[in-house]
Amino acid sequence: MPILSLLNPKGGSGKTTLSTNLARSFHERGERVLLVDSDPQGSARDWHAANDSNPLPLIALDRPNNVKTLSSMSTSYDWTIIDGAAKLEDMIAAAIKVSDLILIPVQPSPYDIWAASDLVDFVKARQEVTDGIPRAAFIITRMIEGTRLGQEVTAALGEYGFPVLTTRITQRQIYPQTASEGLSVFDGLNTKAVAEMQALTNDILTWAAADTAKESINGA
């Protein structure tokens, strides 16, 4: 019953895209998934409302005190996935406190790598008083196919001390196209995007099951 938060205080990192598609990916595997929109902008809520037949349950918890209630609600689900807020320190802190796992989406640019610094400090401060919980990892998003930035970004992110998941999320039109209709890549015809999201789900499952002292799934 893990609570997985996708957090990054910098806008445009792909948090909502990953949250919604990961929720669908777990759902496609028969898992009971709760999607949580913790951002007052309500992007995940808009996505959910765009499709009347959306198979995923979604709740909106956009105040810190509300986020605290997730620990009890998550017991009814196999996975709870939080679409994190941006630039709201209280909301991010609340998500960190209730999470078992934190996935930090980062675009392959030095500005995005630098912007992750404060969040890393937040998470590490929490880990110091909770015996290493929540565990955190990076996921590189919006990669351009055919570029070699992945290795350089992985090395730079490795300086923060968190693993970097092997899968990279490529910048593809299928992501915004399906999102506008309240759908996911699993509803489209782009097999590469589906394979990408399935690979990321496998990475997360491997990382979640790994012993903390043996985290070795980074792409370095």
UniProtKB/TrEMBL annotation:
Q: What InterPro entries does the record tag this protein with? A: CobQ/CobB/MinD/ParA_Nub-bd_dom, DNA_Partitioning_ATPase, McdA, P-loop_NTPase
Q: Does the keyword Cytoplasm apply?
A: no
User: What region holds the CobQ/CobB/MinD/ParA nucleotide binding domain?
Assistant: 6-184
Q: Which UniProt keywords apply?
A: Plasmid
Q: Which superkingdom heads the taxonomic lineage of this protein's source? A: Bacteria
List the NCBIfam families hit by this protein, alphabetically. ParA_partition
In Swiss-Prot or TrEMBL terms, this protein is called Plasmid segregation oscillating ATPase ParF
Task: Please name the source species.
Answer: Salipiger profundus
